[in-house]
């Protein structure tokens, strides 16, 4: 029997932990956890994501603020907003929605967020802490942190002797995912668009993580029987069967055929996506605990 991980359900249990930790922190220290989300421009998909982050933050009992700036915003004005949020003691987490409209320099903005408020885990300090195995004081990028919750629920804390293959090498996902798997003692391969014999490399994986952004690229014959397959792709494709002009979301994994081979698989939608938002809330309440000198909850 193949297990299809219910990401919404796992995300809901993470959110429960965040809620009670938020309430406990409020009670013990009088601190309300605060999250600021900054969005520049009017990309509808970005606005949809930011809207659900705001709703989830309120549900967790956070102070939630959203700053919506026009697409023409100047670098120095965005930098000034980040500086204000950095200095605001009621804000524990800052997320600047990516991608930023051209010609804004997103790298400069991301690196200007205080590492202790960088709930995306993208600052060089947080990336470095992850690389050196310091998970106690750093913050980890939300999507890989969420994917690891699935991995831990399937395989436990110790991945000794297991081969993990991550397809994709972005700073936002592939690199931190590989670091987390390595920290848990897996034998890790990072594959990408220049990898030779990709299918063969993938067939070695006990844990296969796909984050390439190519609809249904991972086929059944790429997967070792019994493997755990985590699909991080979110691709919108045409769905003429649903009517003219209609679309649907698919992952980087051909779900139907791979389900027949894998022992555990995450669906798209309803897999890693909901966990990304839940881990953003988790990172924010962790940051608030640290700011108040309290021990944060574990996820
Ligand atoms: N600074 C920054 N940090 C991010 O983490 C970040 C970002 N910018 N920019 C955009 C991407 C995208 N992202 C998603 C979060 C949740 C779902 C999600 O919940 N997806 C649902 C489906 C949603 C739908 O139906 O469209 C699912 O997979 O089930 C998807 C995508 C976070 N991102």
From TrEMBL:
Name all Tetrahydrofolate dehydrogenase/cyclohydrolase catalytic domain ranges.
Answer: 5-120
E.C. number, please?
1.5.1.5, 3.5.4.9
Superkingdom, taxonomy of origin:
Bacteria
Gene3D superfamilies per the UniProt record, alphabetical = Leucine Dehydrogenase, chain A, domain 1, NAD(P)-binding Rossmann-like Domain
Question: What does the sequence similarity comment in the record state about its family?
Answer: Belongs to the tetrahydrofolate dehydrogenase/cyclohydrolase family.
What HAMAP family does the entry give? Answer: THF_DHG_CYH
Q: What is this protein called?
A: Bifunctional protein FolD
